[in-house]
TrEMBL record:
A GO cellular component entry from the record: plasma membrane
Lineage: Bacteria, Bacillati, Bacillota, Bacilli, Bacillales
Membrane protein topology class: Multi-pass membrane protein
Location of this chain's protein in the cell: Cell membrane
Protein name according to UniProt: Cardiolipin synthase
C-alpha cells in the first residue's frame, strides 16, 4: 500500500508541476496545484524525520526534496530509502536466518586456541554477529588477476562430476563468457547438474541467445531480481554483487573478478586490470555453498538446501589457520560487513593495509582509521588513480583530507584499474571478497567475503600488496592541498551522494 501511495505521489507531483508551469489555467488552479505539491513534500519530510536517520543524512534528503522539484522526490524514492530492504527481503532474511541457525546446531565448536590474541578477539566478534561458522578444516589459495583466476576456474569446471553451482554479478557474452558457457553446456549434456544465477542488472550484456543455449543443454538459469517489475517495487536498487562458484562441494571460488574480457586486462578503456580472487577447499566450501543455495532457493523457489549437507574432508596435515565465509546484504543483519571491517581495523596493533576501488567509508570506519593512525599503527589505503565513474572518483578523494592529517598513507595505483577488495591487519588477519568499502556494499548489495585468521594465504596477499606498492604513488599532503577549487567542488558535490554509492 505504501509503495502504491508513493508512486501516486510521483504522478501527482508531475501533474502539479505541469499545471503550474506549462498551462494557462486560472491562478487559483495553479495555486491549488502548488499547495498540493507542497503538502506532498511536507508529508514526505515528516515521514523522513520519523525514520530517525543521522542528522546529516536527514538534512541532506530534505535539501534534495525541497531544492529539486519532482526529480528530488524521485531520487529520494529510489536511492534514499535504505529502510526498504526491511520488508522487500523480509521473507528471505527470515528463511536464511532459520537455515543458518539449524546448520550451526550441527557444527562442532572449533578449537581456536592456536590463534593469537587479536585473531581470537576478531573470531569471537565474528562468531557473534555472523550467521556462518568458522572453519579450521579448510585450505585457501590466492589467485592474482584474471589469467590465474580463470585458468584455475576453467580447469576445475572441467573436472566436475556431480554439480556446478555458479553465481555472478557481471557475466558477459564475450570471448571469455562464451568459453565458460561452452564448458557449462558440455557438462550439463554429460549429466552434471549446473545451476547458474546472474544479476539482472550487472549481466545485462549476457545475451538471450546464450541463455537459451544453456537452457536447451540442461543448464538451469535464473536471473536475480529481474527488472520486469523492479521499477515499481524498487528492487532494482538492490543488486547481487556476489561471485561464487562451487564444484562438487570440493572446490569453491570467490573474490573480485566477474566474467568478462576486461577482467583479463583486454579492454581498451581500462587496460591492465588488477584484481584478487580465491579458491577454497574443505569446510569453508560448505559455507560458501550454503550462501549460493539460499540464493537459489530465493530466485527459483526450489528448496534444495537439504540435498547438499555433506562437508568436504581435508587431511589434518593440510589444515591452515581458520577461515570464515560471511554473506552480507539485505538478507542478513543490517551493516554486518561494515561492522566486521570496523572490528578488523580496531584490532590492529601494527599495520592496516587496505586496497579497494571504491572508498566511501562510514563515519565509524573513518574514526577507526584515524584512531589507529594516531596510535602509531601503519595505515595504508590503496585506490585506483582513475575510477570508472565521476561520483566514485571524486567521492573517494573527498575523504583523503581528514585521513592524511592523521597520518594515514594513501596511494594511487597507476598501472591500470585496481578492482581488488582486500584488508590485511598485522600480517595475520585478512579479508578477501566482493564487498567494497562503500555504502552500497554495506547496505544495498548482496555480498560475500572470506576472512582469514592465521592463514598462510595472508602472506601471499601481503606480498602482492607490496608488489602493488611499486605501481602506486603516495598522495602527498602538500600536493593534495594545492588542488584547485574546481577539483574541490567536484569532490564536495560527489560526496553528497556518498550514501548511495
Amino acid at each position: 500500500m505504501k509503495r502504491r501511495l508513493e508512486f501516486l505521489f510521483v504522478i501527482i507531483l508531475i501533474a502539479c508541476v505541469y499545471i503550474f508551469l506549462y498551462t494557462g489555467f486560472p491562478a487559483y488552479i495553479k495555486a491549488g496545484a502548488a499547495s498540493v505539491y507542497i503538502l506532498i513534500i511536507l508529508i514526505t519530510v515528516f515521514s523522513l524525520l520519523l525514520e530517525n536517520r543521522s542528522a546529516q543524512h536527514t538534512l541532506l534528503w530534505i535539501y534534495v526534496l525541497v531544492c529539486f522539484p519532482v526529480f528530488g522526490y524521485f531520487f529520494y524514492l529510489y536511492s534514499g530509502q535504505l529502510y526498504l530492504k526491511g520488508y522487500l527481503f523480509k521473507n528471505k532474511r527470515k528463511n536464511d536466518r532459520e537455515e543458518w541457525q539449524r546448520l550451526l546446531k550441527n557444527e562442532n565448536t572449533p578449537d581456536l586456541s592456536f590463534l593469537q590474541d587479536n585473531q581470537r578477539s576478531f573470531a569471537s566478534f565474528a562468531n557473534k554477529v555472523a550467521w556462518s561458522p568458522i572453519s579450521t578444516s579448510s585450505t585457501t589459495k590466492i589467485l592474482k588477476n584474471g589469467d590465474e583466476t580463470f585458468s584455475a576456474i576453467k580447469e576445475k569446471l572441467k573436472t566436475a562430476q556431480h554439480y556446478i553451482h555458479m553465481e555472478y554479478y557481471i557475466f558477459r557474452s564475450d570471448r571469455l563468457g562464451k568459453e565458460i558457457i561452452s564448458i557449462l553446456i558440455e557438462k550439463a549434456k554429460a549429466g552434471v547438474e549446473v545451476l547458474f544465477i546472474f544479476d539482472a542488472v550487472g549481466s545485462m550484456h549476457l545475451s538471450s541467445k546464450d541463455i537459451r543455449a544453456m537452457q536447451e543443454a540442461g543448464v538451469q538459469v535464473q536471473p536475480f531480481l529481474p527488472l520486469k517489475y523492479g521499477f515499481f517495487n524498487q528492487k532494482f536498487n538492490f543488486r547481487n554483487h556476489r561471485k561464487i562458484i562451487v564444484i562438487d562441494g570440493v572446490a569453491g571460488f570467490v573474490g573480485g573478478l566477474n566474467v568478462g574480457v576486461e577482467y583479463l586486462g583486454q579492454d581498451e578503456k581500462f587496460g591492465f586490470w588488477r584484481d584478487t580472487h580465491m579458491m577454497l577447499e574443505g569446510g569453508a566450501v560448505f559455507t560458501l555453498h550454503t550462501v549460493f543455495l539460499l540464493d537459489w532457493e530465493y530466485v527459483s523457489g526450489d528448496m534444495i538446501l537439504e540435498k547438499y549437507q555433506e562437508h568436504p574432508e581435508i587431511p589434518s596435515e593440510d589444515l591452515d589457520g581458520a577461515v570464515q565465509v560471511v554473506a552480507s546484504g539485505p538478507d542478513t543483519q543490517l551493516g554486518i560487513m561494515s561492522d566486521l571491517y570496523y572490528s578488523l581495523i580496531s584490532s590492529a596493533t601494527k599495520s592496516i593495509w587496505i586496497a579497494t576501488p571504491y572508498f566511501v567509508p562510514t563515519e565509524s570506519i573513518r574514526t577507526a582509521l584515524r584512531v589507529a593512525a594516531s596510535r602509531g599503527v601503519e595505515v595504508r589505503i590503496m585506490v585506483p588513480e582513475t575510477n570508472d565513474g565521476f561520483l566514485t572518483q571524486y567521492a573517494t578523494r573527498s575523504y583523503f583530507s581528514e585521513l592524511i592529517r592523521c597520518g594515514v598513507e594513501i596511494y594511487s595505483y597507476k598501472k591500470g584499474f585496481m578492482h581488488q577488495k582486500i584488508i590485511i591487519v598485522d600480517g595475520n588477519l585478512a579479508s578477501v571478497g566482493t564487498a567494497n568499502m562503500d555504502m552500497r556494499s554495506f547496505h544495498l548489495n548482496f555480498e560475500v567475503n572470506v576472512f582469514l585468521l592465521g592463514n598462510s594465504s595472508i602472506r601471499d596477499l601481503s606480498a602482492h600488496y607490496e608488489e602493488d606498492m611499486k605501481d602506486s604513488v603516495r598522495v602527498r599532503p602538500v600536493e593534495y592541498y594545492k588542488r584547485g577549487v574546481i577539483v574541490r567542488a567536484k569532490e564536495s558535490f560527489a560526496r553528497l551522494f556518498s550514501g548511495v554509492l
